[in-house]
Amino acid sequence: MTAADIPKQQRAAVRQGSGESSTTVISTVPVEEPGPGQILVKINWTGLCGSDKSLLHDDWKAFGVSMLPQTHGIAGHEGAGIVVAVGEGMQKRWKIGDRAGIKWIASTCGECEFCLSGTDEVHCEKQVNSGFSAPGTFQEYCVVDGRYTSKIPDGVSDEEAGPIMCGGVTAYTACKRSGVKSGQWLVLPGAGGGLGHLAIQYARAMGIRVIAIDGGDEKRELCTKLGAEAYIDFQKAKAPADLKEEIMKITKHGAHGVIVTAASKTVYEWAPMYLRPGGTVVAVGLPSDPTILAGAPPLIMALRKLNIVGNITGTMKDVEEALDFTARDIVHPILSKGKLEDLDLWVEKLKTGQVAGRAVLQVAA
């Protein structure tokens, strides 16, 4: 192993308790050494994703999804920083000083059917996930699989790279999953949010015409500035059907696609109604309520030949492409910056909708 000067102990935000009342405490924990095939990354910035909040508060317990003991209570999966140690077998791929991004998928087996397809390792059944089945990025130093960690290109700052590791690539791949082509219409409910504002930018970069749905003049200004061609203020609608009517006025036959980033029952119920025949709803937002379904009555599905698809994160190649949009000065996450010590405060802000764009926390002292 080659390494720079590395301390034996580090700061980490460690989960205390369980359920909605759980908190995090800044604790001193050991710094692990990378083994064969691994690297050690000193994390400068980490994004705070809605999924982190859900894992910390056991929002998905009804689905059997909770942080596993091997995380040691350390969540986080949008890390960016500097490689400070390189394990055996990784010297040709990484060197000390390289910039690295840590994702939700921390490692894959490389041998299963999904990995060997070359395009779908996201579904590797033996994958390891940051903050879910391995210690995440809410710590100063993180050991990760050197084969599956992303290189951050020049032109992308660490604070921008962090959110792209999950939020950015999820928005980007959702645009691709929608099947909407250049010149066609895409509806984005919650367009001014953490995922929505990125989806606007990726969609516009792909030549897609965007209808943004959100509430208030501030969100209108943001969405139009980012490239939305039309904006619908849901706060001014008397009923959900009013949004459908507005979309039909703009598109005539309905949108070609809808990306649902809001984990809302009403949005999921109405999203298929915004579509033209053959259109696609992409489910991205993850409600904690297991009774919320994505879809439409079978009669509508059949008569209009609608598609309902899911999307979560992306492949190594998808991450590379998503980062490239930022390196080329096309897509930039709007950032609300804080510090790791204030993680609980930012989780609460995320919960109550007080975060503008994506939250990023400075980790390095």
Description:
Residues 19-361 form the Enoyl reductase (ER) domain. InterPro entries: ADH-like_C, ADH-like_N, ER, GroES-like_sf, NAD(P)-bd_dom_sf. Residues 1-29 are annotated as: Disordered. One of its GO terms (molecular function) is alcohol dehydrogenase (NAD+) activity. It comes from Aspergillus leporis. The chain has 365 residues and is an alpha/beta fold. It has 2 domains: 9-152 and 334-362, Medium-chain alcohol dehydrogenases, catalytic domain (Quinone Oxidoreductase, Chain A, domain 1, Alpha-Beta Complex), CATH 3.90.180.10; 168-310, 3-Layer(aba) Sandwich (Rossmann fold), CATH 3.40.50. It has 10 helices and 18 strands. It has helices at 50-56, 113-116, 158-177, 196-205, 217-226, 240-251, 265-270, 298-304, 316-327, 343-351; strands at residues 2-3, 9-16, 23-30, 38-48, 79-86, 99-102, 105-107, 128-129, 141-145, 150-151, 185-189, 209-214, 230-233, 255-260, 275-283, 307-310, 335-339, 358-362. The strands form 4 sheets. Strands 1, 4, 5, 6, 9, 10, 17 and 18 form an 8-stranded mixed sheet that branches. A hairpin with a 6-residue loop joins strand 2 (9-16) and strand 3. The longest helix has 20 residues, at 158-177. It starts with a strand and ends with a strand.
